[in-house]
Each structure stands twice: as C-alpha cells, then as structure tokens.
Amino acid sequence: MKLSKILLITIAATAFAACSEEEFKTFEGEVSGIYLQRQASWNLDTNGSPLYYTYADSIVVSFTTSAGHITQQEVELPVRIMGNTTDYDRPFTLTVDETQSNAQRGVHYDYNDADCVIAANTAETNLPITIYRHDDLKAATYQVVFSLEDNNYFTTELDEYRSNGDWQATAVDTLCGSSYKVIFSEILTRPSSWSNAENYLGKWSADKETRVNALVGWSHRSWERYGYYDGVRFGQLAYAAKLLRKELQELADAGTPVYDEANNEYMQLGEDFQVDYSAYQ
After folding, report:
1. What's the whole-model pTM score?
2. Which span out of 15-24, 142-151, 160-169 was modeled with the highest average pLDDT?
3. How far is CA 118 from the centre of its chain?
C-alpha cells in the first residue's frame, strides 16, 4: 500500500504499531520503502534535545556569496529507507524529471550513478550532487528535480508527508517523499553597502561587482559584511577602483572596451577613477 501523510517516518515507530502485520508485509523481506527527506531544522526541549524536526524536499544553492575561485558546490541528496537493513549493498533507481528541470547534466550539475546505493547495514545515504558555477547562472535560475523509482530492492512508499514533526501543529504543508528539487543561481542584486562605494566604483551592476570581486578577492557576502574584517572595508575601495580602472583601461586600449548593458554605457567608475573611452566617442 502507499503510505500517505505520515510524519516522522524515521522516529515515529509508535504511529506504525497500530497497523496490521499484513500492511507491512512489503518491508518484511528484501524490498524496503525508500524516500527523499532533508531535516531542515529542529526544535529543542528544555534539556536541549531535539523535540521535533521540520523537513524539506528541496534546497537552494547560490554562488553569489562564493569567492571568485570557487567553481562548484556540492549538495547532498538525502535518501532514507523504511524497513530492514541488509548485509549487502542495494542500488536504488534515481531519475531526473526532465519536464520540471531546466538544468543540463554535465553542464550545470552531475553525480555518479555508482553512488546510488544503500550500503550494507545502513538505512540511509547522502548522495553527493555537484553544482557547477556556469556562466548561465548569472542570468537565470536553474533547477533539477530528482525522482526515485521502484526497483527490485526498493519501493517508493512515501507519496506525501507533513513538513512539521510537531503532531499538534495545524495547517502544516505536505511534501513529496519521492522527489527532491535542487535550485541554483548566481543572480546578484545590488548590496545596500554599494552606496559607500559609488564615489569610487560608480553605479552598480552585476558585471561590475563580479569584476571587482575577482580582482580584490571579495564575494557578494563581503559586501553584506561591509566594515567587518572579512568584508569590504572603506579603506579598500580606492585600491579596488584603481585595480578595476587599470583592467578596464587596458581592455579599452586593446580595442575591446567593456560595455555595461545594465547601465547602457561603457563600464565607468567614480569621478576620480574615470576610464578614458574617448576613442569610442
């Protein structure tokens, strides 16, 4: 049978006690239930022990706070089983729902099919998924939706479950236990701290921030932590503007000026750090 709307599959053994032995015959032998579920957060009791968990069937990955040299990130696909463990490895069947995914395997993400295994004497695994920092991510958000399918070892029993482990909670969202969505992008938005940099770097654009971050070793997170030791500091702005002006001027002198589409002009900096584009006027 399909088990729907069941909460706390991994810990709520008492919820299953009321079911008959026949209802669980699927899990008595080699075939176990399998599902995807991430523990997103938890609520602690007065002793500091987990009281209940909240769950998620998706995760968001952003490269906006990653340093320029970071080319990929790894996330984990949390695969769990219901039923007995075995003394041998059991492969599970994972597919990509192409109708809901716009990311391309091998370009935007990848994983090893050989890792799709519940190892002997274990009841879960975290399948590593590599997300690549492709240039496409600066202009659009991508996603890939993974789905589990039945095979000789596992059956996808958990169609729907509650997102909140608090049995007394009402109006709780339901999640799907047979699919998991990974969403990723690198779409930058203007950090509020850029106002401190406009006299040096000029008007903000995603391309300009990306360039200056790469030159100085900042990330988008650095701008969010403006003034901190590990963030952008006011005394560094003039130095950053000089570096960026040098790069932009060299490109302009070489006949390849940088056009900033966001600002509809050649990329320009603050008044004291102007790039000479007179050859193109």
Report:
1. 0.68
2. 142-151
3. 23
Task: Render pLDDT for 118-148 as a digit per residue (tens, 0 to 9).
Answer: 999 999 999 999 999 998 998 899 999 999 9
> With contact defined as beta carbons under 8 Å apart, do 273 and 237 qualify?
no
Q: Is the dihedral of CA 241, 247, 248, 252 positive or negative?
A: positive
Q: Are strands 154-155 and 32-36 parallel, antiparallel or unpaired?
A: parallel
Q: How many CB atoms lie within 10 A of CB 69?
A: 9
What the chain holds in terms of domains, given with CATH numbers, is: 3-185 (2.60.40.2030), 192-276 (no CATH)
**From CA 11, how far away is CA 155, in angstroms rounded?**
20
The predicted structure's pLDDT at residue 99: 95
Coil vs helix vs strand at 35: strand
Q: Which 8-state DSSP code applies to residue 185?
A: E
Q: Angle 237-253/206-216 helices, nearest 10 degrees? A: 110
Tokens of 211: 């360039």
Q: What are phi and psi of 27, to 5 degrees?
A: -100, 5
How many angstroms separate the CA atoms of 87 and 101, rounded? 36
Per residue in 99-121, pLDDT (tens digit) is 999 999 999 999 999 999 999 99
**β-pair type (93-96, 32-36):** unpaired
Could you identify the residue written with the tokens 């006027």?
281
Q: Which residues pair with 218 in a beta bridge?
A: none
Region for residue 255 given its phi and psi (left: phi exceeds 0; alpha: psi -120 to 50; beta: otherwise): left
pLDDT at 18: 34
CB 52 within 8 A of CB 42: yes
